[in-house]
Amino acid sequence: MAKSILIFPLILFLLAPIGLTETVRFEHPRFPSTFAEKMIREFNLFPERSVNVVDDESDVVSEKKLVEKRFVFPNFVDSSGASVEELGHHAGYYKIEHSYAARMFYFFFESRGRKTDPVVIWLTGGPGCSSELALFYENGPFKIQKDSSLVWNEYGWDQASNLLFVDQPTGTGFSYSTDKRDIRHDEQGVSNDLYDFLQAFFKEHPEYAKNDFFITGESYAGHYIPAFAARVHEGNKAKQGIHINLKGFAIGNGLTDPLIQYKAYTDYALDMGIIKEADHKSINRKIPACETAIKLCGTDGTTACMAAYLSCNSIFSSIKSIAGNINHYDIRKQCEGSLCYDFSDMENLLSKKSVKDALGVGDMDFVSCSSVVYQAMIMDWMRNLEVGIPNLLEDGIKLLVYAGEYDLICNWLGNSRWVHAMEWSGQKEFVASADVPFEVDGSEAGLLKTHGPLSFLKVHDAGHMVPMDQPKAALSMLKRWTRGSLSESANEPESAVSSM
């Protein structure tokens, strides 16, 4: 990564190139659009269109609010020979109710266990990166092979839940609009769209409406998830539409409270031997300006938020310039290419006509990481999304914050600090509670602290993508958390992945 770049590839594999749109323009001479575009091209994640805004929507999706079909990937290797009906795999479009012309694409995988298992929705970050990244490389039902074939993922979260992956905000993945006014700029717009989607989804699938419901995700979803959870809880309290049985929300290696998390960068980097004491002291001189800008962002709006983005990310870029070719998603590794990972197998798969036909997306482009969506959310970046969480905790909605210990960009230290600093009725007891081993099959997979509805888990031997690096531990975490037994030791039997 070029040393002068201020772009913060935070959140899940960003890095979408930060191009210029009609609605938001930044003329700052150091704004890294050219560098970002180069990085995305080398990452094989540069779509023909940087956002799915189309001129002609004919034959893409009907006027129904939700259009869904059962499907089987044409290159899925399934030794059981299960039928479309037996697999219970769905893909669909939701016509976003409060939009001009937006359609949200999603995957829904029925549980390989019981239909009464919880409904779990997964949100990928970016902002503007598709949840298919998680589907194929982390916790979805499949593993993707080099020849673009798919095989069962024995640790897919559909082993223990009815699993939803959503391409959002509009313009991400296969989601699209015919009107640029549908591009979202803040968490209110994002969470309202997701809430409307859930209402339509449960209307289409009333048999799942009474199941426990959990919101999960990663990276910039540390912003999405608290806002979405608050919107669902608000809708339930106001008796809007279908009651959604929200039980909890989980944030993996996320960005939630920038004021606390940016200040943790230098401490984490020093603790992990990435920088030296003199570097720590030097880079820390940037923190006061970052703090001031973040506080102004919270009160003065857009200009201050852009200043905060630039000022605070200079802390990260300074560490990166010292660290060299370190993989900022997993500091044990070197970067492979500009963005450290290669997801081109997914790109190739989702560009195939046979796959698009199976999914019912017509000739839509698949947009892995949208530059337009990314830039549209820039002013949202430095907002503090921790502020709405205490009310959820007080009402008994569970929160799990987990983080792989070798991730730099959304490191466990910063996440631990904001969780401990959060003011709620159980704060004192949570802070005083001891770390206990999180064991999987008799081995310590992490360290867990929990009190009441709040839990924090530091996951061993994992980077930014815990379900990819430690799939067995991640599945065990999900099972035990959704069942209310996170702090209990568990021996997980090997899954019979071909059984339905």
TrEMBL record:
Pfam families reported for this sequence: Peptidase_S10
- Cellular localisation: Secreted
Keyword Transcription regulation in annotation: no
Which superkingdom?
Answer: Eukaryota
Task: Cite the EC number.
Answer: 3.4.16.-
* Segment forming the signal sequence: 1-21
Q: From its record, what is one biological process in GO terms?
A: proteolysis
Q: Which GO terms describe its cellular component?
A: extracellular region; vacuole
Question: What residue ranges are annotated as transmembrane?
Answer: none
List, alphabetically, the InterPro entries matched. Answer: AB_hydrolase_fold, Peptidase_S10, Ser_caboxypep_his_AS, Ser_caboxypep_ser_AS
What is the purpose of this protein?
Answer: Probable carboxypeptidase.
| Similarity-based family | Belongs to the peptidase S10 family.
> What PANTHER family does this protein's entry cite?
CARBOXYPEPTIDASE, SERINE PROTEASE FAMILY S10 SERINE CARBOXYPEPTIDASE
Q: What is this protein called?
A: Carboxypeptidase
Gene symbol of the encoding locus: scpl48
